[in-house]
Amino acid sequence: MIRGYTELDAKGWLRCRVLAFLDTQYYDDVKAEPTQFEGDAIRLIATAADDLVVGVLDIEIDGQAATIDTVAVHPDHRRAHWASRLLEAAEPLLVNRGVTTLDAWTREDGPANGWYRANGFVEQFRYLHVHKEWNDEAAGFASPPGLSEPIRAFAHAPIEREAELRAVFPRVYACRQYLRHELFTG
Fold first, then answer.
1. Among the three residues 50, 72, 99, which one is the final residue of a domain in this structure?
2. pTM greater than the 0.70 cutoff
3. Which of these, 32, 6, 14, lies nearest to 74 by C-alpha position?
4. DSSP state string for 14-79
5. Which position among 20, 28, 36, 53 has the lowest Cβ density within 10 Å, counted as fewest Cβ atoms?
6. Do 50 and 140 belong to one domain?
């Protein structure tokens, strides 16, 4: 069943998102509570027969543009098309709010990129996510005076530096922006 998110769904939302992201390049994007939106947003969840949250879709709306903040499917319920069904349920809600474009950001995970393309999204832009882990060289990362060199760090970089940064840091991802507009016009 697909329905709107309520605060009573917070624990299930968190559990679904953590488990869904665990085997992806976003494995460390852990949240202690569901995203809170200041403006307009569409928040949908999919539940199994036992009311287990098996899918999450959060979309933040800014005028005619909207961005997918979270799309996640519980690993035990993948291949049941929950993400696509959540998106289909969100479409008329987006149209009713006057949204004409929907974008999303993801890294290099094949299934995520394939899902966006299969659902009418087109890649528009790329940049890099660069992670310095505890055992990586600190080259290029600095701390304010009086603090140790960074133990862990996360930074953005232009895609043109990809080869250079991949040679230094083992965890570098191309972050892609996908855009979809054809279903929101007319």
1. 99
2. yes
3. 14
4. HHHHHHHHTTSTTTT---SS----SS-EEEEEEE-TT--EEEEEEEEEETTEEEEEEEEE-GGGTT
5. 36
6. no
